[in-house]
């Protein structure tokens, strides 16, 4: 018996029959004597449809109004779920983000949670109600509705779990747990029983969308163990937890890929102090995050500078770079959207050497050219041509001994 937070993703609540199935699962947990708080996503595809409608009105829809629109996806599912639970004879109530007192900053479409005053949630739990909260949304200090970025319901769930000091935070999704690679592109991927917060942080930031990165940051900060599992059966999934000594023994825990980046190269830039800052400051000034950066030295006091940004920001970053190129008299600006970042991740890398050379030689053996490289203490990433994504993931998965054998 305890306080349990359960989050169900878009596929799990994708139609009324699935909502009924999820409702039965919720009531099962409730009937065991637990307090249950449910966080829901919009039905699968709905957020994309809403974005598409907005883009038919404007290529740059007003950000405040876009968030008002996007939040309706989750408003629909929580109302349908609460109705279903009530129809089944249970006490239940839906809460929108602001009603659950989810306070965020005012960065529309990528707001960050600042605080959750979960008083109303706690009061409803005292009344023995099942509380059904709209994920992905909150409100800023002025009461404007905000959304938390794609996949943000995961973060809502973990943040609510931390705020009400839940005993468990379960993330129900359309896969059985966290795998050594995206099971949709690597059929030899294995389900992990456990993964360290730091590994999951890297994997989430490198393209494994099974958990939104902010949710893992919250979980680590407030020590909330997350159980990622399937909403379609009862098998145990993957626990995301603090690192332990056994985890260090595994060098590479997983391989991830991200096709959502593009790269920009400024060719023949004068190699003088302050040049990188001249190129990159206007980019960050426009609120665009730069991921990888490399600078190649050429002969004759000239250099090439290459960096990557997310595909959403590609066009703006390209326009800004063309402007800068004129100012600093660079020869030309080249953009490339057909790239993918492939990464290997593992806390064991701290104590094992040779991971990078194995990664590079495995890719070379498949004739995959490496365009850019970056590393951290527990990961190595290579940018390759997008068409090699699947081959690169499978090759590295095999090279690091992660393939399922049966
Ligand atoms: P939900 O709608 O439940 O939030 P998401 O689509 O956001 O589900 O996340 C689940 C998806 O994450 C899976 O269908 C899978 O394709 C993808 N994914 C990427 N990398 C991994 C991984 N390493 N392990 C499990 N799933 C992964
Ligand atoms: N519905 C939102 C999305 O599609 C939030 C979520 O599913 O977590 O990104
Ligand atoms: Mg998701």
How would you describe this structure to a colleague?
- This protein is an alpha/beta fold and 406 residues long.
- It is 35% helix and 27% strand.
- It has a domain at 3-174: 3-Layer(aba) Sandwich (Carbamate kinase), CATH 3.40.1160.10.
- The protein is built from 12 helices and 20 strands.
- It has an 8-stranded mixed sheet with strand order 3-6-2-1-9-11-12-10, with helices on both faces. It has a 4-stranded antiparallel sheet with strand order 13-18-20-19, sandwiched between helices.
- A hairpin with a 5-residue loop joins strand 7 and strand 8.
- Helix 9 (275-285) runs antiparallel to helix 10 (314-328).
- Magnesium ion binds next to loops.
- The site of magnesium ion has 4 residues, from loops.
Keywords:
globular; 35% helix; 20 strands; Carbamate kinase; 12 helices; alpha/beta; binds aspartic acid; 8-stranded mixed beta sheet; 4-stranded antiparallel beta sheet; binds magnesium ion; binds adenosine-5'-diphosphate; 406 residues
Quick summary:
This protein is of the alpha/beta class. Helix content is 35%, strand content 27%. It has a domain at 3-174: Acetylglutamate kinase-like (Carbamate kinase, 3-Layer(aba) Sandwich).
């Amino acid at each position: 018996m305890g306080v349990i937070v359960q989050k169900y993703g878009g596929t799990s609540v994708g139609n009324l029959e699935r909502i009924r199935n999820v409702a039965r699962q919720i009531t099962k947990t409730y009937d065991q004597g637990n307090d249950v708080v449910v966080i829901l996503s919009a039905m699968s595809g709905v957020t994309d449809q809403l974005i598409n409608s907005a883009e038919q009105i404007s290529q740059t829809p007003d950000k405040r109004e876009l968030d008002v629109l996007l939040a309706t996806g989750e408003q629909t599912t929580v109302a349908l779920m609460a109705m279903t639970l009530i129809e089944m004879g249970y006490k239940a109530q839906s809460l929108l983000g602001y009603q659950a007192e989810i306070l965020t900053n005012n960065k529309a479409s990528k707001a960050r949670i600042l605080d959750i005053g979960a008083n109303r949630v706690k009061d409803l739990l005292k009344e023995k109600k099942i509380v059904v909260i709209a994920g992905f949304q909150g409100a800023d200090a002025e009461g404007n509705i905000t959304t938390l970025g794609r996949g943000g319901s995961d973060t809502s769930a973990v943040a609510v779990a931390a705020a009400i000091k839940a005993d468990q935070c379960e993330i129900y999704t359309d896969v059985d747990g966290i795998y050594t690679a995206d099971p949709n592109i690597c059929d030899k991927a294995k389900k992990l029983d456990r993964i360290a917060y730091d590994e999951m942080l890297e994997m989430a930031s490198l393209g494994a969308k099974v958990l939104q990165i902010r949710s893992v940051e919250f979980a680590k900060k407030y020590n909330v163990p997350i159980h990622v599992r399937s909403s379609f059966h009862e098998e145990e999934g993957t626990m995301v937890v603090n690192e332990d000594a056994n985890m260090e023994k595994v060098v590479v825990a997983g391989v991830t890929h991200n096709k959502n980046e593009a790269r920009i190269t400024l060719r023949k830039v004068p190699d003088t102090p302050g040049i990188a800052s001249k190129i990159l400051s206007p980019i960050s000034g426009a609120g665009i995050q730069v991921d990888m950066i490399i600078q190649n030295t050429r002969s004759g006091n000239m250099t090439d500078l290459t960096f990557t940004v997310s595909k959403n920001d590609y066009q703006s970053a390209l326009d800004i770079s063309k402007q800068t190129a004129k100012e600093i008299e660079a020869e030309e600006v080249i953009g490339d959207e057909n790239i993918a970042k492939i990464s290997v991740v593992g806390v064991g890398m701290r104590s094992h050497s040779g991971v990078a050379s194995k990664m590079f030689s495995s890719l070379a053996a498949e004739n995959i050219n490496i365009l850019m490289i970056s590393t951290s203490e527990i990961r190595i990433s290579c940018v390759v041509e997008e068409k090699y994504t699947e081959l690169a993931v499978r090759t590295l998965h095999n090279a690091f001994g992660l393939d399922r054998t049966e």
